Amino acid sequence: MDYTSTTEAAVMERQRSENTIAAGPRHSVGVRADGTVSAVGDNKYGQCEVSGWRDIVAVAAGNVHLATNTGNAHTIGLKSDGTVAAAGWNKHGQCQVSGWSGIVAVAAGWRRTVGLKSDGTVVAAGRNEHRCCQVSGWSDIVAVAAGCAHTLGLKSDGTVVAAGDNTYGQCEVSGWRGIQAAGS
């Protein structure tokens, strides 16, 4: 009999992806029923160059921080085998995800990419100026979200962890209980 932990069960339940479309600052991305991807819009950094992607189950699109940064975008695709594809602007290494495996969910923030692994741990690549990529100690995570300069992780017990910039109190989630979905 296969053993599945509570965290793995929660991750697998959420793996039935709702992330079949994504919107970047000036581009749109969608997963087709056959696992291929379509993208339209500004392609200044190659963020729409996804025609060769196959077996994709979810997509995410990186956002911008300021209006003056428009066009600095990247696109992330989660493959059915748990690996990740990336295209677009990569100044901070946010597209350096080719070595990732066992990924069940992805999120794209400003200049970074976040991946949730099947064992409930989290990986991140890209800009870490506000320590928003400091997620290596997280465990029992079932969902991730990436904001402008912070990252959220929903734990299997309904609590939330955060990393990154807290200028507006966006990381003050330690008292949250019973949360079912995280968004940033």
UniProtKB/TrEMBL annotation:
It comes from the Bacteria. InterPro entries: Ran_GTPase-activating, RCC1/BLIP-II, Reg_chr_condens. GO terms for molecular function: guanyl-nucleotide exchange factor activity. It holds the Pfam family RCC1_2. One of its GO terms (cellular component) is cytoplasm. This is RCC1 repeat protein.
